[in-house]
Amino acid sequence: MQVCFENPAQTRRELIDGLSATQATTSPKFLYDALGSRLFEAITELPEYYPTRTEAAILSANATAMSQAIGTVDTLIDLGAGNCAKALRLIPSLQPSLYVAVDISVGFLEKSLEDVQRQHPCLDVAGIGLDFSSTLALPPDVVRGRPVFFYPGSSIGNFAPEQAETFLASVRRQAVGGGLLIGVDLIKGTEWLEPAYDDALGVTAAFNLNLLLHLNRLIGSDFDPRDWRHVAFFNRDASRIEMHLEARRALLARWPEGQRRFEAGERLHTENSYKYRIETFAALLRSAGFADSRCWIDAKGWFAVFWAQA
Least buried of 48, 54, 150, 202, by fewest C-beta within 10 Å? Predict the structure, then answer.
């Protein structure tokens, strides 16, 4: 297991700068500590959360066509691997000789890789603990042969479109000779979008509120989740779901050598999830330098899996 995180001082500076901004904000990467990763795994099982099961159905129904389009895979690089379940659906059809799982949550990833190795004892397996939220820079010795990057779950939606283009360009540079298989959530009605991020059981609320406990550990702050409520909605103008934490009362959040007053109703912006049209995302791949792309879509037109040749 290789760990390539930014240093704690940089993390601290990033968080404090975000909390001190006019609109307080944190990166969605900080949602994924060990508990956050387990809570997100639970979210994917909820009836409201359509992306995981819809993407899985697309991968299952089109496995043969995808493997034919992709061709030989020497190294399969799974970005944001989590529990590695999505890659496990691909491994039998793509038959890579090396599987590389990349995730920010190292402890969670180690357990997941044990499961992969148990199911595929002849497959070479490696793990990298890496924050790739700004750009992707894999250690130079990771990739062997023809690389295929796999970025499932519509996580590309956490990037603003201009940031997504920069990120995709960094993937393309490291995928020369291979390409990228990526899941993309499509625009649909708010009656489907909003419950996926604000479920009836409150699991997504717990996932969002857990961020505050993670902040307390990272910067020594004194956030109390009981002072906050989860808010999620679709911003139609920006074509994105927004997640926020809203202060239930006026409060003062403190950390060593700093503090921030929040008024009742003031929000901490914790995540964006951009939704795309097919033609818009295909254009984004072209702008990032990918030569060719094709996609597979579910019957409802809710989700797409793109293959883009580097």
Answer: 202
